[in-house]
Structure prediction request, 434 residues.
Amino acid sequence: MSSPTVRINDIGQFLGKTVTIQGWLYNKRSSGKLQFLQVRDGSNIIQCVVFKGDVSEELFTAADKLTQESSLEVTGVVKEDTRSPLGFEIGVTDIHIIHIPSQEYPISPKEHGVAFLLDHRHLWLRSKRQNAILKIRSTLIKAIRDYFDEQGFICLDAPIFTPNACEGTTNLFETDYFGDKAYLSQSGQLYMEAGAMAFGKCYCFGPTFRAEKSKTRRHLTEFWMIEPEVAFMDLAQDMELAQDFLVYVIKRLLATRTEELEILERDLTILQNTAQGSFHRLTYDQAVQKLHALGSDIKWGDDFGADDETILTQEFDRPIIVHRFPKAFKAFYMKEDPDNNQLSMSMDILAPEGYGEIIGGGERETSLDVLEQKIKEHDLPREEFDWYMDLRKFGSVPHAGFGLGLERLVTWVCGLHHLRETIPFPRMMERLKP
Ligand code: 4AD
Ligand code: MG
Prediction:
C-alpha cells in the first residue's frame, strides 16, 4: 500500500506512520552518514533525516546532489523531534527527485539588499519571513470579510475604471477609455454611498490606485482597501464601528497566527492592548497641542506630516483616533462640523509605535448646496458628479464610513519598516516588475 501524501502542517496526525510530502529543499547540512534536509511545502518546514544505513547507496548519493530549491517528494516515517519548532521530523526511506535547478538559486541564506530581493520577488516569496507575512495578510483578509459579513453588510464591488476623482486630482492614474478619459479608482467610497442607500450597510474590498510620486515607506501606487459605508450613521458611531472592527481583526490574528508573529519576532504587547479596545481619542486641536508639546512645529490648519504621525503615535500604547480635522485639507465629501464650520466630521485611526494612519473616514456631507460649493472649490468636473448628487436628492440620510489600507495594517501588525513586503507583488513609483 502506498503512503498517504500529507501537508507538513498536518504531519502530527501521522506520528509513527510512513507518509509522503511534496515540496522543495530549503536548506541542507550533512555529517558523514547523515544528511539533514530542510524541506518546505508552503505550509511549513520539516527536517528530513537521511541515514546511510536506512537507504540504498544510490539514494544517499542522489540526496547529496540536491541543491537549494530542488523539488522533490520525500517518503519516510514521522518521528517526534522536540528540538524543532514543528515538533516532528521525518526518517527518510525514499526520495523522488522531480527537478534539480541547473544553476545556483539566487537567494541564498546570506543577507541580500532590498533592491535585489524585490527584483527577485517571484522567488523571494518562498522565504520563511515572506511566507509568514503573506499568511498573516491572508488571515487578515478573511477576518475583515468575516467581520462585515457577520454584521449584516453586503459586499458590493466598486468599479476600477471611473470618471470620478474621489480623493483629489493630484495622484490620479489616467487611462484612455475608448476615446474618453477614465481614472483607475482611488477609492470605492462614492459608489459605496450609493450602496448604503440601497442596502443600508455595504462594503467594498479591492485594489485602489494612486500615482504617489513620493518614495515613502507608507505609500504604494496599488494597494487594497476595505471600505464600509452605513446609512443612518454619524461620526461617533463610525468611530465605534472602526474600533470594534479592528479589535475583532486583531483578536483573530492573535488567536491564529502566533507562529508567524514569532517568526517575525513581533512584540505582542501592543497588539494585546489593541484587542482590549478603548482606543485613545483626540480632536485635531488636541493632537496639534500634543504635537507642539512633543516638539513639532506643525501649524494649526496643516495636515500631519509623516514625522508628526510618528512622534504622536509613539506616545500611546494602542491605536488612537483623531477626529474633526480642518476641512481645508480634507476631501470634498466630508461633512462640515455643525459646531465649527472650519472643521470636518472626519476621523483617522493612527496605529501606535510610530506607524501612523491606517484608517481614514468620517461622516459625509448631505447638503446639496454645500456639496455644489465644495465640488467647485476642489475644481472637480461637476457633470461627472450628477449621479452622486442624485443620492442627496432621493431619500438622503446621514451616513458615514471609512477606508482601511490593508498593507498599512499588515505592516503595523507584523512590525515591519516598509509597506513593500506586505503585498505579493508591490507597485511603487520606481517598480512595476516582476
Ligand atoms: O485616507 P484615505 O485617502 O481615505 C479614503 O480613500 C476614503 N475615501 C475612505 C473611505 O472613507 N471610504 O485612504 C484610506 C486609507 C488610509 O488610511 C491608508 O491606510 C490607505 O488607505 N492608503 C494607502 N495605503 C498604501 N498606499 C497608499 N498610497 C495609500 N493611500 C491611502
Ligand atoms: Mg487619509
